[in-house]
Backbone:
């Protein structure tokens, strides 16, 4: 029996709904044999997830998802098989967390101007030691009756051009890839089609990504159609990048974003996990 990989998932250490232990157990229930926990700009959930995976008999691949600025765009870089305690990575995480917290405060200030109070203090309590993400704000807006769904909250308040949107300058693409490599990991461009970049821009980004030391691209994602997989694989082939798979699981209840519910890699694709 071949391994079932899911190399992109989130826990309550960032914006997931399940604790690291609950996430691992759900992965086991859905047949995943190799899981990467890749929380946003934090490795706080990895110790618990590793212990749970040992008990569950599945392989836990330590990971992270870093937000990176590339010219005027924000890209997400997944780091796989990292050393969570590496000094350069920890220093980079601290910088990202400061940027993220400052953004959260600014979003809350903008919401307050719209008569929506207490967002930051409420979400600090909700997140605990975890990171506050825009998804936290979306859930907050739904809970307070200002939006019907998380997507509605983004459409009304949080997306570019909306009242609570805050432009954010993250660490550079080269820095994020460098931190991952310093920590012994491999860098993967997450969900390449979600950025809605033109062919010119995605190729430009992938050239910069590979030049920085990036080695993979998510070819199969939780939402990917047959055409999406074909296009992502074309990018992988053109730029000689290895192929990764990841659901980007955040919470139960979305049948299209379930742990392990992923299509097979295209024939001929070089799997990223051959590197670790």
Residues:
């Amino acid at each position: 029996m071949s391994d079932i990989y899911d190399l992109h998932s989130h826990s309550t250490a960032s914006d997931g709904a399940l604790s690291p232990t609950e996430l691992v157990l759900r992965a086991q229930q859905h047949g995943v044999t190799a899981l990467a926990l890749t929380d946003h700009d934090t490795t706080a959930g990895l110790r618990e997830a590793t212990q749970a995976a040992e008990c569950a008999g599945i392989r836990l691949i330590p990971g992270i998802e870093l937000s990176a600025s590339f010219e005027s765009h924000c890209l997400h870089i997944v780091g796989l098989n990292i050393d969570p305690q590496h000094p350069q990575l920890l220093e980079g995480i601290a910088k990202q967390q400061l940027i993220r917290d400052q953004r959260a405060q600014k979003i809350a200030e903008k919401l307050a101007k719209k008569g929506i109070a207490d967002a930051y203090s409420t979400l600090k309590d909700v997140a605990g030691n975890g990171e506050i993400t825009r998804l936290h704000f979306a859930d907050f807006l739904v809970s307070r009756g200002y939006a019907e769904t998380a997507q509605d909250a983004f459409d009304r308040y949080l997306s570019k051009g909306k009242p609570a949107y805050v432009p954010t300058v993250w660490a550079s693409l080269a820095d994020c890839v460098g931190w991952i490599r310093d920590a012994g990991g491999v860098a993967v461009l997450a969900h390449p089609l979600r950025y809605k970049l033109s062919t010119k821009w995605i190729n430009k980004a992938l050239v910069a990504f590979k030049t920085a030391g990036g080695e993979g691209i998510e070819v199969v994602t939780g939402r990917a159609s047959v055409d999406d997989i074909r296009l992502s694989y074309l990018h992988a082939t053109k730029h000689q990048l290895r192929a990764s798979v990841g659901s980007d699981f955040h919470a139960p209840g979305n049948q299209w974003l379930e742990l392990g519910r992923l299509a097979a890699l295209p024939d001929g694709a070089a799997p990223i996990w051959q590197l670790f």
Q: What stands out?
A: Residues 87-113 form the longest helix (27 residues).
